[in-house]
Amino acid sequence: MKIDDVTEILREAAETVVMPRFGALAAGEVSEKTPGELVTVADREAEALISRRLRDLLDAPVVGEEATAADPTLPRALNESPAAWVVDPIDGTGNFVAGRPGFAVMAALVRDGETVAGWILRPVDGTAYVAERGSGAWRGGTRLRRAPAPADPAALRGDVLTRFLDEPARARVAAAAPRFASLGRGASCAGVDYPRLAEGERDFVLYRRILPWDHAPGTLLLDEAGGHARRLDGSRYRPGEDRSGLLAAADPDSWERARALLA
């Protein structure tokens, strides 16, 4: 398997299934799978196409976001199978439905519980990010190398996704906000948030809910670019673990500074 083969699969899904429906969804093509969680016909069709093509490359279980909604046991494969694919057919479905460009098509390959390769495609502008454990992170043909963030917390720019935080955690975030240069809410799309971190537009992002299709590609991209994505206890993120809380940052020092103020 060549790593670019997966990029081409994501491009095929974006070009044939996703983009033809961007800004053109009919009322019956959008629904809620759980309260507040949108799904579209494009999500389901893109996941089916990507899953089929990935199995042609490597015959391994596919843990897809939409398939897991129908069968919650699927993520067990991330720990129980020697290899497994992870697929997010449209990350940022809310943005996609609203006609905003902040969405992505993503995939990852997990071996023995560790993410070893990840892909993020942004269909609107065609930008592709690829990471392979031990081989670096790339945007197209350009290698990504994340520079360290400023030492002063007052110069750090970050995001916190507050939607899934409890009230005490939201209060801590509100109290910490004046200590940073800026503190936003993120793009509502991990496929946008992680590249922003890797390319230096943000210095940290704090997540509460950690789903494998949202975070397996991006954590590897950031780590391979020289950043630092870890659980709040400092342990490495593993996509098959059912725990919450993840802080992604430009480097270990900024990770520690952000955690001290936020968590």
- Give the count of structural domains: 2
Order of helices and strands: HEEHEHHEHEEEEEEHEHEHEEH
CATH domain class name of the largest domain: Alpha Beta
Could you report the average pLDDT, rounded to the nearest whole number?
Answer: 95
Q: What is the CATH fold-level name of the largest domain? A: Fructose-1,6-Bisphosphatase, Chain A, domain 1
Structural class: alpha+beta
CATH superfamily of the largest domain: Fructose-1,6-Bisphosphatase, subunit A, domain 1
For the largest beta-sheet, the strand count, sense and barrel status come to:
7 strands, mixed
* Tally of helical runs: 9
> Major sheet: order of its strands?
3-4-5-6-7-8-9
Verbal overview:
This protein has helices spanning 3-18, 41-57, 65-70, 77-80, 93-98, 167-176, 190-199, 212-225, 252-262, and strands spanning 30-34, 37-40, 62-64, 83-91, 104-111, 114-122, 127-132, 136-139, 142-143, 157-160, 182-184, 204-207, 228-231, 246-249. The N and C termini lie far apart (41 Å). Helix 1 runs antiparallel to helix 2 (41-57) and helix 7 packs parallel to helix 8. The chain is globular, with a radius of gyration of 18 Å. It is of the alpha+beta class and 263 residues long. It has a 7-stranded mixed beta sheet, sandwiched between helices. A 5-stranded mixed beta sheet has the order 11-10-12-14-13, with helices on both faces. A two-stranded antiparallel sheet has the order 1-2. It has 2 domains: 3-143, Fructose-1,6-Bisphosphatase, Chain A, domain 1; 153-262, D-Maltodextrin-Binding Protein, domain 2 (3-Layer(aba) Sandwich). 36% of the residues lie in helices and 26% in strands.
